[in-house]
Amino acid sequence: MKKQAISAALAGTMLVGTMAAPAMAVSVDQFTDIKTTDWFYPYVQKVAEKDYMIGVGGNLFAPTTEMSRAMFVTVLARLEGVDEENAKSNFDDVPDNTWYTSAVNWAAENGIVEGNGAGKFMPEDEITRQDMCTMMARYVTYHQKKHNVTHVKPGTEKTFTDEDQIADYAAKFVEQCVAWGLIEGNDLGQFMPKSFATRAEAAAVISRLSWRSNGGSGGPGDDDDDDEIKTESVKYYINLKLDVPGSVATSDPEFTAAYSATITKTNGVVTKVEFDDESVSLTDVVTALIADTDGAEGGDTVLVGYVQQALNKLLKEEHVFTKEISGQTITVKIDTEGVISAQGVMNVADLIGTDGSTEGLSLLGEAVTKQEMMDLVEKIQQGGGMKFSQREIDVLTYMVDKANELKDAEDVKAKLDEYAKDNSALENAIKGISSNELYNVFDEYRTELRNLKTEVEEAGANNEIIVDAVEMKPVDLNLGKYLELANEKYVGKMDAAIARLESNLYPDDSKELIDTQTTLLKELYGYNKPSEFFTVEDEGKTLVLKDAGAYADMITHNVTQSMEFYDSLEEEESFYQGLLDRAQIKYGDKYGIEYINVSSLPGLLAATEENILEYLTDGKGDVVYTDGEIFSVKVTADEDSYDSWLNLIQGEWDVADNLPGQVPNILTDLLGDYTLSMKITKGE
Questions:
Q1: What is the pLDDT of residue 484?
Q2: Is 391 exposed, middle or buried (0-12, 13-18, 19+ CB in 10 A)?
Q3: What is the torsion angle, in degrees rounded to the nearest 10, for the CA atoms of residue 457, residue 459, residue 460 and residue 466?
């Protein structure tokens, strides 16, 4: 009953608006609650210009306000030009001389309305969609007979999922209105017969009336009358292209995506966008860049081709580089097959001594420092003729005695753990070292030390002898273990990373991500785990770069999932504008990103698949950007930005803590400008 009270209140205000005869036509653009992108824009434009329906005051049309039965009948009466002078009522609940009395009388006299059979019309009740169809179908029948015209039938037969809810008395009238193209269901295939009709829906139904003369004088809305809604179709083309540096692409493959679509304009205003293949959102268009565009057997794509060319550049020669971690030398090699291996040479002083502050020689009463041991180790690694002082002989004796204390692999492991307990870098560095392998290498080194000690003692201090080089052999590192540790840390940071993204999306804490959106982000985060870049071979001793197809799949997942996530936000243009502004500030200069002519990008992100092309036009089907370029994003990968990207990646992975080594400067061939551009052009 509350709605009836509201309808009654609105009816009074609309007496001088929609239902009362205005002095002049109203332009739809005067309504502040109607946008050109609204589906009902051309229909409101039509009924307002023809004075069938106008506003409710205050420059408002109130498109979502529900229509009463009195309101709808009055609109039909205005279509026929019914005299609106005061009249006596024929229904018990229709007062004399109201703004709708004449309209109700006319409709009753011509079989358009019948009331409830008990002498009541129920003028203030909201009109249901099925009752609107009932009145409309009866009106069409009346109008055709009176004016000797036939209604053009552009509609198609439909079966609604809720057709069993349509009342028996209304079923045939709903069927007629659908056949005449006057009314449609929703996207779910429902007609919603008992839902109340809104002013926008009523405007659409009225505007879709279209008559063809049978040879008589016609009447309101026949073919010679400008009441008819005129439609035309225009073809448009969307083209995307990704340009990459010439150093990456040895050829010029067509890394593009193209869509053609038809825009239907009704009375000069876009009312429908149909892509030739299917409805396409920005997500679909961008994702097409990584689609199988060359049709090669085996699913090879242009993207795979680009990645393969990049890998070929990367692996054109073997790369070897080293890193020092707390005195331990780590050597990493990437061969031309993409196999990554690493070896570590442990510092002997770390294996047999401590920091030297408490260790002493019983004979001399002096501490043997770590530096003394390291100096001696460096000397005997040279080999050749050399002399040894008594102090060096004492240090060598100390080293052999300490080495003899390590009886097995467990002793080696315990010694390393003791030394590394306060050194996180060393602690991580030794996690990929096998104690057994290290002990075997150390045992060989200890034997050589013993032999050298014997030779030196026999020769005596300061006597030159010929010494074979004594070197600690490298030990293969278990890169699989480092990868596992890096993976654990990466996954452990997932919640914090998602929280940072959420904070960037909504810096004012106005919203929180819902569960489905968080799930999307977790999946997206998971695609980029360190383990996704390599396969582990040789019992963990080597990592192998995955093939181009695997990286292309990873990129595909990233693009698709990212676009799906941003689609799920369903935000307005202002939201994406703020996001773009923050991204330009945060990432632009630092990471070499330049946004070119992106004024339309926020709106494009907010556009749905139904109005993506409409957004890129002026609302009337004409392309706004006459030069054809809508926007482009250029990423310049120079040495500075490349270093910044690496720092960003390392910050996420913490690879510096887990995977010893440094990223070599082996990607210089991949530096340059990467530009993604989107253009829209009008067809002939």
A1: 87
A2: middle
A3: -100
Those residues with Cβ within 8 angstroms of residue 553's Cβ, 6 or more apart along the chain or in another chain: none
CA torsion sign for 46, 51, 53, 56 is: positive
For 367-392, how does the pLDDT look when each residue is reduced to its tens digit (9 = 90+)? 788 888 889 999 999 889 999 999 99
Asked whether the beta carbons of 134 and 170 are under 8 A apart, the reply is yes
Torsions phi, psi of 258, nearest 5?
Answer: -135, 140
What is the number of residues in the chain?
Answer: 684
Residue 653 binned pLDDT confidence (cut-offs 50, 70, 90): very low
User: In whole angstroms, what is the distance from residue 291 CA to residue 630 CA?
Assistant: 22
Cα within 13 Å of Cα(116), Cβ side: 11
Q: What is the C-alpha to C-alpha distance for residues 115 and 481, in angstroms, rounded to an integer?
A: 82
**To the nearest 5 percent, what fractions of the chain are helix, strand and coil?**
45, 15, 40
Q: 46, exposed or middle or buried, with CB in 10 Å at 0-12, 13-18, 19+?
A: buried
109: Cα separation from own chain's centroid: 60
CA 55/CA 70 separation, integer angstroms: 16
Q: How far apart are CA 76 and CA 382, in angstroms?
A: 106
Query: Helices (H), strands (E): how many in the chain?
Result: 24, 16
Cα of 396 vs its chain's centroid, Å = 64
Burial class of residue 331 in the structure, from the number of CB atoms within 10 Å of its CB (0-12 exposed, 13-18 middle, 19+ buried): middle
The residues near 460 (Cβ < 8 Å, ≥ 6 apart) are none
Secondary structure (3-state) at 245: coil
Distance, CA of 204 to CA of 487 (rounded, Å): 58
Helices (H), 148-277: 168-179, 199-207
**How far is the C-alpha of 611 from the C-alpha of 36, rounded, in Å?**
11
Tens of pLDDT, residue by residue over 410-429, are 988 888 787 777 777 667 77
Are 302 and 324 spatial neighbours (Cβ–Cβ below 8 Å)?
Answer: no
**What sign does the dihedral 133-136-142-145 (CA atoms) show?**
negative
319: which 2 tokens?
A: 């790369």
CA distance 223 to 152: 10
Asked if pLDDT for residue 613 goes beyond 90, the answer is no
For the record, the structure tokens of 390 come out as: 């008594």
Query: How far is residue 627's CA from residue 680's CA, in Å, rounded to a whole number?
Result: 9
Give the tokens for residue 573.
Answer: 């243009």
Q: How far is CA 568 from the centre of its chain?
A: 8
Summarize pLDDT for 310-346 with one digit per residue, the tens: 788 778 888 887 777 666 778 888 899 989 888 888 8
Side chain identity at residue 425, one-letter code: A
Q: Give pLDDT tens digits for 506-538.
A: 888 888 889 999 998 898 888 888 888 889 999
Residue that has been written with the tokens 């329906």 in this structure: 53
Of the candidates 149, 151, 270, 126, the one whose C-alpha atom is nearest the C-alpha of residue 206 is 151
Q: In sequence order, what are the residues at sequence separation of 6 or more whose Cβ sits closer than 8 angstroms to the Cβ of residue 166?
A: 130, 160, 174, 191, 193
DSSP string for residues in 76-105? HHHHHT---S----SSTTS-TT-TTHHHHH
- Three-state DSSP at 60 gives strand
CA distances from 362 to 352, 375, 460, 573 (A): 17, 21, 20, 80
Task: Say what the pTM is.
Answer: 0.57
